[in-house]
Amino acid sequence: MSLIEEYMTSCVLMDKRSVPDGLGGFTYEWVDGAAFTAAIVKDTSMQARIAEKDGVTELYTITVYKGAALAFHDVFRRVSDGAIFRVTSNVTDSETPERATFQIGQVTAEKWVIPA
Fold first, then answer.
1. How far apart are CA 65 and CA 47, in angstroms?
2. Could you tell me the pTM of the whole model?
3. Among 14, 20, 46, 68, whose Cα sits 20 to 30 Å from the Cα of 27?
4. Which of 35, 21, 89, 20 has the alpha carbon at shortest distance from 65?
5. Nearest to 9 by CA among 88, 80, 86
């Protein structure tokens, strides 16, 4: 097992779907979608710490295998503790070249709360 594989943790994409509200309208609910693994690392740079102190949400770097290509504003849940993250970049902006021995990509994400 490689070092990156040891760092991976189980995650689940969250799917937003509309459901009838019984009054002729609808509401949204979030349900579990596809499972994947990711390495989730908190950004502890000085800039991130200053921003967090000023009220900006916690920032993370998410590393995934290319088969789990995350897109801008995808929402996912870390299975181990239920933490919710929202992707703030595109995986296509930071992928390994095709000839690399490991096929991964990275996105940035913020800790997020699912709106009620």
1. 28
2. 0.85
3. 68
4. 35
5. 80
**Spatial separation of the C-alpha atoms in residues 25 and 32, rounded to whole Å:** 23
Structure confidence at residue 1 (pLDDT)? 66
HSE value, Cβ hemisphere, 13 Å, CA-based, for 62: 36
Q: What is the pLDDT of residues 60-81, one digit of tens each?
A: 999 999 888 799 999 999 999 9
CB 9 within 8 A of CB 23: no
Q: How far apart are CA 85 and CA 104, in angstroms?
A: 19
Q: How far is CA 7 from CA 4, 42, 46, 95, in A?
A: 5, 13, 24, 18
Residues whose CB falls within 8 Å of the CB of residue 69, separated by 6 or more in sequence, listed in order: 91, 92, 105
Residue 29 token pair: 């609910």
Query: Mind listing the domains of the chain with CATH numbers?
Result: 3-111 (2.40.10.270)
